[in-house]
Amino acid sequence: MIKKITFLLLTAAFFIVPWVWTPARDWAPGIAVLAGIVFAVAWGNPFAKYTSKLTSTLLGWAIVGMGCGMDLVSVLRAGASGFIYTLIGITAGIGLGAFLGWKLKLPKNATYLVSVGTAICGGSAIAAAAPALRAKAHEVAMASATVFALNAVALFLFPVIGHKLGFNQEQFGFFAALAIHDTSSVVGAALQYGESALEVGTVVKLARALWIVPVTLFLTWFIADKSGEEGEKRKVRVKVPWFIPGFLIAAAIVTWIPALNGAGGFLKNISKYLMIMTLFLIGANLSREKLKELGVRPVLLGVILWVILSVLWCTAIHLEWVNCSI
């Protein structure tokens, strides 16, 4: 009972404290995910079966809420400007991941799950790719844990790198959106950097997440094991994360009905604190069992791939090869 009460109090605190105490807003996202990890590994998540399902819903509503405070024209412009960069990053990520997986002698499914999770959007991409590849549960768990661990590192490390290199808000938004896996970690890192970084990072990351659809179809048709399928029609089910159209609809409503700007701005602010609370719950989903599932070679693949792509994007943005103006 003490564990449950403490967990609920911490969850509420990560929503309320940043809202009422301005100085806490800069460090709250990083502290939230770290606190969740420490709590779950050291003491155990007492609501694990609920938080694993709840986090994706809360994340979605937080992103839709952010759309309530954004201009649709600016959103579409940012998404269009990031299109070519996301295409380059995803192609390079999956191609390089396949090569590294072959060199490390990793199983095909493990290679592509880690590669897709790194190249597109972490856990969502892994969940979408798993049925296409007919991946086993332990392969999905391993890839998810690998990507999750790297997301946690990025949440702390990327804002420091951005400040050291003198990135402006737009540059950091692109950097976070192109080099961090999960949407939640992109938003968490950008939230620490500033308002414009948050807006740019969120929009470009959502445009990147849309690549789940063509990449899953590619895996289904060209990569997945076809054994046992002769004579049967392969069913392909690809789902676009619901919060992407939700985000666009929210931005459209506020843009086309100016009278709602005040309410939209309020919902956008609330969504920031909802995201911080969600980051704590996401961190709490990492258990001791998941840590044990991490094999050395899949983690090595994830780290090498992530470091190479991050350095390349960081260099390209620093040298202004990436046009970050919206």
Written description of the protein model:
The protein has 326 residues and is an all-alpha fold. The protein is built from 16 helices and no strands. The longest helix is centred in the middle third of the chain and has 28 residues, at 137-164. It starts with a helix and ends in an 8-residue tail after the last helix.
CA gyration radius, whole angstroms: 19 Å
Q: For the report, how would you describe the main beta sheet?
A: none
Based on Cα principal axes, name the global outline: globular
Quaternary: single chain
Helix content: over 70%
Q: Could you give the count of β-strands? A: 0
Number of helices: 16
Instruction: Write down the overall mean pLDDT.
Output: 85
Distance between the termini: 50 Å
Secondary-structure map with pairings?
Blueprint: H1 2-20, H2 28-42, H3 48-67, H4 72-81, H5 83-103, H6 108-119, H7 123-133, H8 137-164, H9 169-179, H10 183-193, H11 195-209, H12 212-223, H13 243-256, H14 261-284, H15 288-292, H16 296-318
